[in-house]
């Protein structure tokens, strides 16, 4: 999985995504210096690597959370462990399922702002299952199925077009065949905290997303009173549009 995502970003960004300069740069005065990135279901933390390298090159302290994807509680715990290692104000960022996690974990007092990317955004008492059933059906959502152990996957035949239509076909197909499962208990677990109610919140809407319908993303963002940015990308926009996503995170780092 790691090498596939690195290859994808290298192809799409001309090899520049992984050649960040040494940290001679410094974040702007008054900005939060720490960025914690939480990945979504079916992929690992390297889905954030293109964004992480851009931000690291600008002097931010960036940490990638490795979610076990076994339960909401386990992923929240992994995120809280990452937050515990930060010194000072921190921007907490999620992608897709990872935003259910940051909604719960983002009440940490170190978190100065939240960034949602192509994201599910629950309120208190809502689960991923609740949100998935309340919006219009999408190609990607309809292709999520459990195996005999209750682990959820996206149908590999559907994955390339539904999740990663703007990645090279070979890489999208390889990702489809090496998915990391999300346990069904995570899908069904409601959050009991909605950190976005008390934190400055930003939302990157992927306008070509076939997993979370763009119109649903807009509804989530409006409910949270989030500052929104549209990118013309698929559900994998954090890889394909890493520069635009990183720019939103930098904006969030300056939020008061």
Q: What brief labels describe this structure?
A:
256 residues; alpha/beta; three-stranded antiparallel β-sheet; 12 helices
Write the layout of secondary structure elements.
Layout: H1 2-12, E1 34-38, H2 49-57, E2 61-65, H3 72-84, E3 90-95, H4 98-105, E4 111-117, H5 128-134, H6 139-142, E5 144-146, E6 151-154, H7 159-163, H8 169-176, E7 182-183, H9 184-188, E8 201-206, H10 214-224, E9 227-231, H11 237-240, H12 242-253
Parallel strand pairs: 1-2, 1-3, 3-4, 4-8, 8-9
Antiparallel strand pairs: 5-6, 6-7
Walkthrough of the structure:
The protein has 256 residues and is an alpha/beta fold. It is 38% helix and 17% strand. The protein contains twelve helices and nine strands. It has helices at 2-12, 49-57, 72-84, 98-105, 128-134, 139-142, 159-163, 169-176, 184-188, 214-224, 237-240, 242-253; strands spanning 34-38, 61-65, 90-95, 111-117, 144-146, 151-154, 182-183, 201-206, 227-231. The chain is globular, with a radius of gyration of 17 Å. The relative contact order is 0.18.
